[in-house]
Structure formats: C-alpha cells, structure tokens
Amino acid sequence: MATLYDLKKALERSIDTASQEKTAVSSGTRLLSTSEYSDGFQALREASEQSNYRSFILPQLESLLTPLVRSHGQISVLEIGPGPKSVLRYLSNSLRSSIRKYDAYEPHGQHATDLQMWLCPILDTRPLLPCLETPPIIHRKPFTADINANISAGTARYDVILFCHSMYGMSPKREFLAGALGMLDRWPRSGLAIVFHREETLRLNGLPCHKTAVHPSGTICVKDDNETLDRFAPFVAGFAMRDSGVHKLILDEWRDQCRVLGRRDTACRGYLLFSSPNIMVSFASEATGLAHLTLNLPSALRVDEPRVKNRQARLHSPAAIVRPTEILHVQHCLHWAAQHGTGLTVVGGSHSGQCIWPNVVAVDMSAFNKILVIPNENGPGTDASGLVVAEAGCTSGDIIRETIAAGLTVPLGARPSVGAGLWLQGGIGHLSRLHGLSCDKIIGVVMVSASSGRVLCVGHVPNNHLPDHAEVPDNADDLLWALKGAGTNFGVVISVVFKAYAAPMYSIRHWVLPLSCTLEARRGLQDYHKLVSAITDPHTSVDAYLFFEDKKLRLGVTMIEASTSDDAGIGDKISPTATPPSATRVLGPEHESKFVDNVGLFDTEMYMSGMHGGHAGGKTSSFKRCLFFKTVMATHVADKLLAAIESRPSPLCYFHLLQGGGAIGEMASDATAFGCRDWDLACVVTGVWSRDQDGTGASQAAIQWVYKVAHDLLRLSHGAYGADLGPYPRDAALAVKAFGSNVTRLVGLKKALDPHNILAYACPLVNAPSHPALVIIVTGDSGAGKDYCAAIWASSFVCETRFTARDVSISHATKREFAAATGADLDRLLEDRAYKEKHRDALTAFFQGQVNERPGLREQHFLDVVNDAMSTDVLLITGMRDKTPVAAFSHLVPTSKVDEVRVQASKDVRRDRGGCLEDVDRDDKANHSMLHKPDFVFHNDLKGGEAAKEFARDHLLRLWSEDLQRLGSLVRTTSDFPRMGVEFRHVLGITQQPHGLHLCASLLKSHFQGQWRRVDAIVCCGAGEIYASALAFSAQKPLALIREAGKLPPPDSIRRQGLVAYFVFLIRGISKKQDSDRRRRDSSRCACPCGR
Ligand SMILES: Cc1cc2nc3c(=O)[nH]c(=O)nc-3n(C[C@H](O)[C@H](O)[C@H](O)COP(=O)(O)OP(=O)(O)OC[C@H]3O[C@@H](n4cnc5c(N)ncnc54)[C@H](O)[C@@H]3O)c2cc1C
C-alpha cells in the first residue's frame, strides 16, 4: 500500500510532468490559503479517525494519562498545534474530567478561534473539558523552542505537553522538545511530553524517551469523491498552483494520482486507503539526563556506529548505544534507566527488529564474548558430556567453533551469527529432536536484575565463573524457570551455562521437487508429511521449503542425520549414513548430499545455499514469524499455505518447515517458560525483498504479507515462536499464544522482577485481552445526568482503586453513521445538547430503521463498545435505551459482571438540565409497566459531583474490589468437567484455602445493600450452608437452613464450623409453595435500594 509520503512525491512529480507537457503550468506554486489548509486538515483528520485515532492514538493517550491522573488526581495540559479541536475529545469522560487546566499554542487564526469556541461552548452545551479551573489560554502563535520566551509569555508549568501530529515544521525537533520538557512540572509532580508523529521513527538525536510505541500498520481511509480528494491532495502536497485555471487542471491530475496509488478494500467501500505508520514517543522531565549515564561510563563505551544485523532495527534511531565491558557498567545502565523512568534494549546477536528501538538507550553486549568449555563435567543431571559457559555477547557460531575443538556441541540454531536472544527464548535447530531446545540445555545463569540492579546467580554456575558479589536470590528456581524460554524479560543476562554433548557429524541430503499444479503441490506436501511421520529416530530431522524459482512452485526437502562416535561404535570412524529407503521411496533419489561437521552444517541450509541462486547473492533482507502446527498437512492448512505462497508480494518469499517432536515434546510444557511443545512442524513464514528496497513500500508489503499469513494461520496453530516477537501491535496476538499455559505465571513474574518495565521492548509477556471484569450500564431519563455520573464513577475507579476504567456512550456509533448519512454535524451531535435534542427524533427513527434492516445491531453495538475496552477492568456504558439492558446483553459477555445503575432526577432538575421530558414520560410508563428493577438507583438531584462520588464509594467500588479479586483467585477452575464444554468452578474449595471462608463471609456481609439491623435471620436454601453459616456468624444473626427432608448436613460438619449456636431452626420438607412465599417475603425485607 502506498504511504502518504509516496503520494506526496507522486503529487510533486505530476507538477513536473505537467509543466513539461503544458506550458501554462509554469505559473508556479503558492502556499495554501487559510481555508484550503483548514479543509485539507479536516479531510486528513476524518481520514485518520477510524484507524489511527481509535486504534493507536486514543489507547496510547489513555495508557499514558491514566497513571498520571491516578498519581496527581487532576492534571494540567498544554497542547501544541491542536487545530480546531483538541485530540483530547477522544478521551473518556473520566479522563477529560481530570483536566483542571488546558492551554494551547495554535498559530492558525481560524483554528484558534474554533478551538476557543469548542472549549468554551455556548449555553446548553456541556463543555468537553468540564472541570477546568481557569479559562483556557490559546496562544495564537507558533510554539518556540525557547522555554524562557514561553514562560514569560504567561504559560505555567504543566503535567502534560502534547504534540499530536504538530512537529512537522519544527527543526531541529530535539530543541523544541527540550523547550517543552523545561515547561513540565517537576518532582513530585513528574510530567510527560507526548508526541504523535506520522512516521515510524522520530529522530531526536539522543533524547531518551520515557515510553515509545509504533503503529506500522496505521492507515488512512479517504473518501473517494472529487470534493474530498480536492481538499485532501493539496494538503498532502503542501501547496497549490498560483493560477486558478492551472490549479483546476492539476486537481484533475492529483485525483487520478490518489486513485492510482490508493488501495481499495471491500471492507471499506468508497474509500481509498494509504499506509500511514504512526509513532508515539513520550518524554519525562528527566529525559535530558543521558549525561548521567555516560558520565558513569568510560567514553570509549559510547558506540556511534552500531553493528546490527537486522535491517528494521537499523532504521531505528536509538537515544544512544553503550557497549559495557564490565558487569558494573551494565549495573549503571539499569540504575540509570530506573532513576530516569526509561527503558533499555539489549543487543545480543542483533537479529531481532527490537534490539535497537527509537529514542531508547541500547546496551550492546558484544564485549562479553568469552566461552569456557568444561569437558567431562555434567552439572546436575547425567545426560551431558560437559558444560559450556558462554557470555551473552557470543554468537551461535562462536560457541560451535569453540566447543567443536573439544569434541563437544550445544544444540543451537541454524545461523552462526544469531546470539543470546535465541537461547534465552527457545532455540530450534537440527539437534532439537535429539537433545531439546537450546533453552532446555541452560542449567545456570548470571544476570543483572532489572528490579534491583544486583548481580544474581541462578542454577548451577561453576565457582570459578561466579562474579564477585553475585547473590542467589530467594526466587532462584522461579527465575531459572522463566529464563528458559522468556529470558529476555527479567534482567540483562551476562552468561549462561549450557549442558554440552558429543559433537556429531551430519549426513545431509537435498531434494527439490517441482510442483506444477495445486493438486501436485498438495500431494508434495502430503508426501513430505508422510516422510516426517515415518521418522521416529531423533537423530534425523527433515526440513521442507515451499518457494518459487523461475516462476515455478517448488518443494525443497532437506534430511539431516546426526551420528556421533557413540553411534558408530568405539574406535570406528563416523561415516555418512545411507539414504533411508523410505526417503527414496517417497522423494526419489536425492539431488545432492554432503557430510559435514557442526561448522560445515551452517552452510548447508537450503535457504542460504540452494534457493534463489544462494540467497539472491546475499543481497536480500528478510522478516520472519514462526508458528507451530500439529498437522500442517491437514488439507485446510496445506491449502492456506498454498494460497498464501501464491499471494507473495515478492518472488523471494517462502515458507520453511522444521520438524519437531522428539526431545522437544518429551519435556512437560510447564517444565520451562517455553510453553509450546506439542507440535510436529514449525512453519517460518519468511518475507524477503532485495536489500536496496529496505524501508520502501516493497519491504512493507513483504512484512505485511508475513503478518497476514501468520494471523490467518494462528487460529489453526498450536502456538507461536516468541523469539522473533517484539513490542509491535501486530505481534500482540502472536505473543498471546507464544507461551501456552505458562503465560499467566510469566506475566506475574514480569511484574515482580521488572516492576518498572525497563526491558519494555523484549518479547511482550501478555495475557489474552479480556472483556472488562465489570460492566456498569448507566441508564436514566433524559437530563438526569447519566454521562456526568458515569464520568465521575469511572474516575473514582481510576483514582481510588488500582483498576483501569472508562466510560463510553454506546450511541456514538449511531451518531457517526447518522451524520455520515444525513450530513448532520457529528461533533455537535456528540457535544451540543441543544443540537442533539433537535435531532433526537430523527436519530431515533434512523436507529430504528437500522435495527429493522440489521436485527442484531443492538447486540453488535454492545459488543463493539465492550471489545473496544478490552483489557480495561471496568467499563461504564451510557446511551442505552433498552428497557432491561442487563437481561438483554449480559449473556454476550459471560466473563464480565454486568450491573445497571439508574440515574434519577426530579422533573424540574431534568428540565433545568435541558432534558427532553416528553420522552421521559413515555419511558416512565414503559418502565412502570414492566416492573423492571435496576441493580442500583442513584438520585442525582443535587448540584456538583460529591453525591455521585459518595455513591461510587458506598456501592460501585465494592463491586470490583481487591478483596473480590482475591476471592476470585481462590476459585479453582476445571475445564471440560463433568463433561466437554463445561467449565467447572469449585467454589466450595474457597473454604479449604487459608482465610477463604472468612474473606467470603466478610464480602457477603459488606456487599449487602440493606440495613443489617432490619434482618431477622439468614435463610439458606440448597448447598450454601457453609457460607451462610459463616455469614450468620459474622453478622451475629440466626441461621435458617431450608432443605428437603433427609438431605441435612451431618451435625459434625456444622460443629466443625463452630456455628451451632446460630442454628435456631431447621425446616424439613418445606413445600415449594411455602418456599417461594418465604423467599418473596424475605426479598421484600431486603434493604437493597431496588429490592435485591
Ligand atoms: C537469519 C535468522 C536466522 C534465524 N535462525 C534461527 C534458528 O535457526 N533457530 C531459532 O530458534 N531461531 C532462529 N532465528 C530467530 C532468532 O532466534 C531470534 O531472532 C532471536 O531473538 C535473535 O537473537 P539475537 O541475540 O541474534 O538478536 P538480538 O536482536 O540481539 O536479541 C533478541 C532479543 O533478545 C534480547 N537480548 C539479547 N541479549 C540479551 C541479554 N544478554 N540479556 C537480555 N536480553 C537479551 C534483546 O533485547 C532482544 O529483545 C533466526 C532469526 C534470523 C533473523
């Protein structure tokens, strides 16, 4: 997909072409007029809203502002170049309500006026920043890099300074940012400067950031009509033609260019798509403290020219690269990062895209390159022939070359230049079936802890290799477990101790089979599968490659057989093995064979030596993601592979299949952090392009292809390989599947062992995103103050608990579609009550029409808002007009607790607030007729938010408290019990956990909404007697058990609880009628606001 930059260049080129063809074009260009600029700005913003604002900018902003609001209570914001409306309008109400001060620099006159209007709206419109304590100051001039000038111009210090796509004209950008950092509030109110920029990297010459995230898949969707394109194209080009006649001609040409370069997508009919990668970089006021790091390190350790293999990493511009030579230097780096609230990357073999990251300091470990081979020492366990201590700057090739001299080897990967990232995160190679993964062979580690900066030693490390001051931490077993598979996340690893084995010789055989049609391709893959399934000897592994050569599809197969002197017999020379008859039968005679040692093995990989004329002469770059499969050759998987290879964007892209099984699968999946072991084949989806296309649309297309194929295959896979994954949004779904069932334990360890998230750019350890645990539907009459209360309640969760919360209006989607269909002003529909009321009937009719056409629309809207709030703990939804929303929608989110709070206010109050009373009367009747009872009712007649806050404290915060979470964690879950598809939650098990019963009883007591003094007894039907008796004991109330005759609990179980005194009566054989009468009577006594 063409980028905006590609489009800009094409628009510029078309002027040159036109000027050659039409003399009139020599009229020259001019800057855009104010209205052209505004129109273009608006067109670009509309085009970006869906993809970039909603999927990147908004979540990033919320994740940065939420902790600030939590620590500061309320915040002040300075926005640079917001245009006519601030990006803050996309935030949840609760975050907007936390802004007490807002100022801006907006040099564009009309935008500044519009912004002022937007911030201080006319009567009846609720301001978007409702809690401002002082009127906003809009500086109608450009922001300068000179902090003194800015401060003397009357700007105060701020908690947040925001540049949202406004750094384009600023040069050098670093100076402008340094100016902004000088205006941030300082300790104890540390602030943030936040930049969003429309590129994948933002070069700031050594300014270390607080956090950064990239959105390489950002797109913009421009409406494909002449009017929109005529506004959009000049804005992208940055100029117009001086002569109006020529301008018209050029607009014709530019429309064509947009249509030629813009991609069309059936999911986005009527729009043109352009690639628009985005980056977010945030800086803390301490960002300028790089000097503190370098002062503590000898100057020779600063590296100007990084030695980086990965081509994407080379495009990133780090804050600095340091190359420590002693453990003390590594400790300095970690201390510095912790003190300055920033992250670090670590460079091993530099094969990943994330070892160098924009505006982050990189710690290059290449000086730690010693290898010590200890033959005949086994360490714990007896299967090894020696040990190898390898420092973290070594490569696989270094280790293999060193060990082979002692007749030993370590199972590593297939490329000699790959480094520590491989053995810390897996390590799949030709000896994996025989000895296991590289990480399985690690028995000891020396590292510098990310949390304490101390030198730690875990597992078995030979004494003479222990650094001074190395400590064995209390959690050494946990740490060693985590380092074997997820080892890049907890500290900087200095060295590891591997088990080593007798070095084998390898018999290598290659086949290349032409596949002339789909049928033959399927058959080829089936033959390969047959061959692999027949191989049980772990000394043998068979790889396959699906690739195109000379425009023809081919299947390459490589069989590797390892033999050691043990296999050959004492005194016998190791010699090549004969081709197994099964291979000849299935594949025919081999095309090539070799007999090599471990070093020679590196050169035999088909993708290096055989395909594409030997890696296209070595002048290519590649991008890989790897998935694990049980049955690649199941028809649907094979067909997907064949379809995907047909859609490759460059002739060099291919699939590499590696055989699993053997020792990989023999280890239990929770024995190490590497949790994906149950697979037969690993499929490496490899996008390749020629090196001179690095950073262009061609490389983007190949990377996009890899992700598309990987995501398509993910559902069918048995996991993803974590070693390749980084902090890219596109890796998130793969990362969720990278550690199997170990992920929850790893997420917990990451929080404990890297609490400041210093190693934030390693393979992400993430739980699958989940629906909000608590969904509160806020209903009520027009004018009752639903949105206002929802915002206060969301901020109560954010400020008074450790949970994340947001409030959304479900009607936004309808308003957006209504505005698009009718031309109504979307912003006013969202923000201007009078305008909204004017369109109320039309909107209702529009929605009803939509529902008639799409009957599942209400459910769809509900799921959309809930899915948008994935990983938020508490979601408050307003704007629902359904009469019984909990009953109607809670089944759609079975893992969430869904409650309804109805906000009520008197007619007079609602009228004063501009509510629509007719509507209310209609609703009231309907409500009464249905006798619907919400979970809570809040009376919102008073002015101000105090009552709402108190209500949140008394009722809502308890719905999702730390104690409830703790109780939840005590409930053991058994899947598929007592039958498939049933998840069994063993609630009685709570009583067997320390303090479980007490916790449960105290929660039951505190969650009761009524008055305990009005309760006469606790009545318990069925099997809850243990909890009921504990509650009765705690509340000092008598207990009544209702049981069918003959089903009483044995008296000793009651005595065990020490509760006998509180049994006052037991009812035997009570009839169903009596039972229900009693229940009704009891529930009417319940003092919960709505009878619950
Ligand atoms: C050409 C190529 C061939 C490959 N072949 C194989 C193969 O045969 N088998 C296989 O299993 N995988 C293979 N891979 C995948 C490879 O294992 C991963 O890309 C791995 O992460 C690379 O590690 P590295 O040290 O070379 O890269 P780096 O980019 O330097 O490091 C990768 C990650 O490890 C972290 N890290 C590095 N050193 C340390 C340290 N000392 N302490 C803490 N964190 C550290 C880095 O910060 C980064 O997050 C291959 C990849 C490529 C590009």
TrEMBL record:
One of its GO terms (molecular function) is FAD binding. Residues 314-503 form the FAD-binding PCMH-type domain. It comes from the Eukaryota. GO terms for cellular component: cytoplasm. InterPro entries: FAD-bd_PCMH (IPR016166), FAD-bd_PCMH-like_sf (IPR036318), FAD-bd_PCMH_sub2 (IPR016169), FAD-linked_Oxidoreductase (IPR050416), Oxid_FAD_bind_N (IPR006094), P-loop_NTPase (IPR027417), Pmev_kin_anim (IPR005919), PRTase-like (IPR029057). GO terms for biological process: cholesterol biosynthetic process. Keywords: FAD, Flavoprotein, Oxidoreductase, Transferase. The keyword Oxidoreductase applies. Belongs to the oxygen-dependent FAD-linked oxidoreductase family. PANTHER family: BINDING OXIDOREDUCTASE, PUTATIVE (AFU_ORTHOLOGUE AFUA_1G17690)-RELATED, PHOSPHOMEVALONATE KINASE. This is Phosphoribosyl transferase domain protein. It comes from Emericellopsis atlantica.
